[in-house]
Design brief:
The complex is a heterodimer of chains A (645) and B (325). Chain A has 645 residues and is an alpha+beta fold. Chain A contains 23 helices and 20 strands. By secondary structure, chain B is of the alpha+beta class. Chain B folds into two domains: 164 residues, no CATH class; 101 residues, no CATH class. Chain B contains six helices and 17 strands. In chain B, strands 2-11-10-6-7 form a five-stranded antiparallel sheet. Chain B has a four-stranded antiparallel sheet with strand order 1-3-5-8, with no helix packed on it. In chain B, strand 10 and strand 11 form a beta hairpin. In chain B, 38% of the residues are buried. Classes of the chains: A alpha+beta (645), B alpha+beta (325). Chains A and B meet through helix 5, helix 6, helix 7 and helix 19 of A and helix 2, helix 3 and strand 8 of B.
Chain lengths: 645, 325
């Protein structure tokens, strides 16, 4: 068994570190320590040519690691436990890695390990890191298959193999018939760590979310986007209040979006980031329900499955509407319900408005006037509130974020007997001038109120807007100049150049999301029919894929296997020599052997005899001699090159 | 159609497939038609790993996972062409062959020429158990020495040699069979038993060279097995304890005839051949001119490497069943 070439081993170790590196923050510390230690020890052993431990010991360690991983995760299945197991076993495999078979298996495992990084991130940066990982791993594999070669050459070969594979990759990527995953149920931990709106609203929940700079969704309008203040992206609607928290409560019975649209609809396409909930966001009010989604009576649009990967849907909305049709008496009754206790001052204020007003609309106007007149402050850092949260907010602290305003407003309405509900979602959005997508971030999360007025239906009231109109027109950053240090960095006004760079980067990231990560069956059908494949189905795609791959391979085969015309270096040098002499006037006759020709040349160019003779002698030697002589061939070539008749 | 017929047909088909033919004359170019390629076990493992990665990408909707899986698939497919290119269009020529005694290894030399402008890596030249691993730079020729066990005397053809390679990724094995026209002469294995000395027949013939005769004492040299006891310097041995052989020179040195017919009749053909081989070697080492007389062959006494090799070759190729001439 020949020893494994050391440079390739080192490259493999680097490749392992690159593939496993991104997992480090996600792995338990002991896994990182164990794997890192084993890798370092194995590299040291390769350097010092130390013997590797016995198989029994490795087996024992593997069993111990298996148990330890189980103890840590309480399972061996699932995404995180699987990755931990893969890393530990890979590290242990290094201890018994002695043959080419072993290194090949380890390399394949590393390819797989590189894939597991995508569970956590599929950004462009991740793709670039993975590309580098692939080159290093492949170079080590090439090295193991060509042990005497310099490592630098192996890297070149690996890079060119990967580069030449790109057209095939493109064909496979575009044409391989896509199916919608998952093929089977995924483990519970597959969707941990997604941010977004919650299915309940407690004071402080949205303000916490607002500090996140993450993108909630992107929107591409077919025509000009509406102005910012009119972009209310409708999300979960809350009916039930327990004195502190708003919840959706029981779902309204009706399944249809019924309202009277007015004006011209806007149509757009939303690319929603995964948030592990079913809400699909649309502008108030949505005028259609996309495929595989439901509409509810309170104008929510719900996907049938929680949104666990980026989804894209076409939408149509009416910014002007009369939402009259949907309310039943039970529903209106439900929209007036409050828990019996708490917040006495707010209740008495509402009762006072009720007494002094002629109708519901007048009550609503009193409430709006109240928010405008009192000196409420819009802040990201509202004080913590106690049991009587609404009272404390309305009469003492008077500082709050949108959830405080809308929650208190809805409470006041209900206390006055006016049907009202809380709507959460996002408000506004930022136009990326590079690709003209509207980007809506978690920091645009918002909450407002809807009030039922006889004859007018559900109308939107945004108490936050009455307190801080700037919030709607220019966004949160403009609304809170005094405390900008708590805002996400990019949102702060003084970093405009940074924002510009970010626009570009995000436009690129959006492309990436749309075309690489979001290339799903629908987009595939779309693209292929645009490319001229009528009604693409999997048979057509498979056939096209077959021909595309065959064509790529045929072209490569032609280029790679083409035989360069000349094959014999000795003969070609001799022919070059004869050609030079022919130009000088001495043409070799076809019947003339080298010796006869040499004699004639010596007569024609007597001053060149000292050069011609060794060339001819060498040629005869190389051509008719018994042993090939690589140095001689090189010398002949040099002599002929330098020869001037 | 009988079983036999169908078998013959099949074997013909196979020999066509594998191009099992008589040895090929001259340089053999590994044209694309005679280079075969198949995935290795690693190739299948790689494909299986890619399959798992594809399933993972579908299940978890990993767009980047598709990208990675398909990149590796593309790379694997391209590596197939590179594997093929690593072997195709090499030119194989038979080189020198050193004779060998039966029981040793015949060393065949193959000249493998890489006429193309790209280097070739990790080429294996395989002849049964003998494996040579070499790289060949662009437009260079590499000399490969293949050791082939030679158990029996006679002519040993090199036979079929496999050239193969798994470069660059080990996913594919590409190979080609060549059968260059090369054969080694395998001399008979010299007899190693305690053996009687060859008869020095008192024929007076032409002396070939000084040093081999028995006329004039010209010196002493250490005893070698096979020296005639008549030439041993017994007196010197008594004095010094070591055996020395008296060394004669001059015209009329005795000619040593190594005769088949003088060997004990009890020996079989191979034993006789073996013993004659031993005698030839010892006579040659002793500088004694010898002649070989075996059925069908009679070589006049002489000395020298060429003579020894001619005699050994005749013995190697000696066929007892052949008609005597």
């Amino acid at each position: 068994m020949p020893a494994l070439p050391a440079p390739s081993l080192y490259a493999l170790f680097v490749g392992i570190a690159l593939a496993a590196g991104p997992h480090i923050p996600r792995l338990p510390i002991w896994v990182v320590g164990l794997a890192g230690g084993l890798l370092a020890w194995r590299a040291w052993a390769a350097w010092r040519k130390e013997p590797l431990p016995r198989k029994g010991l490795v087996l024992l360690l593997a069993l111990a690691a298996l148990i330890a991983v189980f103890m840590h995760y309480r399972t061996l299945l699932g995404r995180d436990a699987g990755v931990a197991l893969l890393v530990v076993f890979l590290a242990l495999k290094l201890l018994e890695m002695t043959t080419r078979r072993d290194v090949t298996v380890v390399t394949f495992l590393c390819y797989f390990l590189a894939l597991t990084n995508f569970f956590y991130s599929q950004s462009i940066a991740t793709a670039a890191t993975t590309g580098a990982t692939l080159v290093v791993l492949t170079a080590s594999l090439v090295g193991f298959n060509a042990p005497r070669r310099r490592m630098q050459e192996n890297f070149k070969t690996a890079a060119s193999l990967l580069a030449q594979g790109l057209p095939l990759m493109l064909a496979l990527f575009v044409l391989f018939p896509r199916v919608n995953g998952p093929l089977w149920g995924l483990p519970q931990d597959a969707y941990a760590g997604m941010t977004g709106l919650s299915d309940s609203m407690t004071p402080g929940a949205i303000s916490a979310l607002s500090q996140s700079d993450a993108i909630a969704f992107r929107v591409k309008f077919q025509d000009r986007p509406p102005e910012r203040a009119r972009m209310y992206w409708r999300g979960p609607v809350f009916w039930e209040f327990d004195g502190r928290t708003w919840r959706s409560g029981r779902a309204p019975a009706s399944q249809f979006l019924t309202f009277e649209p007015q004006g011209v609809p806007v149509s757009y396409e939303v690319t929603l980031e995964p948030h592990n909930r079913t809400w699909l966001f649309a502008l108030d009010l949505p005028g259609m329900v996309p495929r595989d989604a439901l509409g509810t009576a309170d104008y929510q649009i719900l996907a049938r499955q929680p949104v666990r990967s980026r989804v894209r849907y076409e939408m149509l909305s009416f910014l002007e509407y009369a939402a009259t049709a949907a309310a039943t008496p039970e529903e209106l009754d439900y929209a007036r319900r409050l828990p019996p206790d708490w917040n006495p001052r707010a209740r008495s204020l509402a009762a006072q408005w009720r007494r002094e007003s002629a109708n519901d609309e007048a009550v609503m106007m009193r409430a709006i006037e109240h928010f405008r007149a009192q000196s409420f402050e819009y802040t990201l850092r509202p004080p913590l509130l106690g049991q009587n949260a609404v009272d404390e907010f309305l009469f003492q602290s008077k500082r709050g974020f949108c959830e405080h305003f809308s929650g208190a407003f809805t409470f006041l309405m209900r206390a006055a007997g006016v049907p009202a509900r809380v709507v959460t979602g996002y408000q506004g959005g930022e136009l990326n001038p590079v690709d003209e997508y509207i980007v809506v971030r978690q920091s645009d999360a918002h909450a407002w109120t809807e009030v039922w007025l006889e004859g007018r239906g559900w109308i939107r009231v945004d108490p936050t807007a009455t307190v801080s109109p700037v919030r709607l027109e220019s966004g949160m950053a403009a609304a809170m100049p005094a405390e900008s240090e708590s805002l996400p960095l990019f949102v702060r006004p003084e970093f405009s150049w940074l924002r510009d760079a970010r626009y570009r980067w995000e436009a690129l990231a959006n492309r990436w999301n749309q075309w690489v990560l979001g290339y799903n069956p629908e987009r595939q059908r779309d693209l292929l029919s645009r490319l001229g494949m009528p009604s693409p189905d999997w048979q057509k795609m498979a056939a096209a894929l077959f021909w595309a791959v065959a064509a790529c391979l045929a072209v490569f085969a032609l280029v790679l296997l083409a035989r360069r015309g000349r094959t014999d270096p000795v003969q070609s040098s001799w022919l070059a020599f004869c050609a030079k002499l022919a130009r000088a006037g001495t043409v070799r006759r076809p019947s003339e052997g080298p010796q006869a020709f040499a004699l004639r040349v010596a007569r024609a160019h007597p001053q060149r005899t000292t050069i011609v003779e060794p060339i001819v002698a060498l040629y005869i030697d190389l051509r008719y001699g018994p042993v090939p002589d690589n140095a001689g061939v090189a010398r002949l070539r040099r002599l002929v090159r330098e020869f001037r008749p | 159609m009988t079983m036999l017929q169908s078998f013959l047909r099949r074997s013909e088909f196979f020999s066509f497939l594998l191009r099992l033919r008589a040895a090929e004359q001259g340089p053999i170019r590994l044209t694309q038609r005679r280079v075969y390629i198949l995935p290795t076990g690693y190739g299948f493992t790689f494909a299986f790993a890619l399959f798992l990665m594809l399933i993972g990408s579908i299940n978890y909707t990993l767009g980047l996972g598709y990208l990675l899986t398909f990149s590796l698939a593309g790379m694997g497919l391209v590596s197939m062409l590179h594997s093929f290119r690593n072997l195709a269009h090499l030119v194989v020529r038979p080189g020198r062959v050193e004779p060998v005694f039966a029981g040793g290894d015949a060393k065949f030399e193959l000249l493998v020429e890489n006429p193309s402008r790209h280097d070739r890596f990790a080429l294996l030249v395989v002849r049964d158990a003998s494996v040579v691993d070499c790289d060949i730079a662009a437009e260079r020729t590499e000399r490969v020495r293949i050791a082939v066990p030679a158990p029996r005397r006679g002519s040993l053809a090199l036979g079929r040699v496999t050239l193969e390679s798994r470069y660059p990724l080990g996913l594919f094995r590409v190979w080609s069979y060549v059968q260059p026209d090369a054969s080694a002469i395998v001399y008979p294995r010299p007899d190693e038993s305690e053996l009687p000395d060859a008869q020095v027949t008192p024929d007076r013939g032409e002396a070939v060279r000084a040093g081999g005769g028995s006329d004039d004492f010209s010196g002493l040299r250490p005893y070698q097995r096979g020296d005639s006891p008549r030439h041993v310097a017994w007196k010197a041995a008594e004095r010094g304890g070591t055996l020395l052989t008296k060394f004669f020179s001059g015209h009329g040195a005795a000619e040593l005839w190594l005769r088949w017919d003088e060997l004990p009749a009890a020996l079989d053909v191979e034993a006789k051949v073996s013993r004659l081989t031993r005698w030839i070697l010892e006579a040659d080492a002793g500088g004694i001119a010898f002649g070989l007389d075996i059925p069908g062959v009679r070589i006049a006494p002489a000395l020298g490497d060429a003579h020894r090799e001619t005699c050994l070759t005749r013995l190697a190729l000696f066929d007892a069943g052949a008609p005597r001439s």
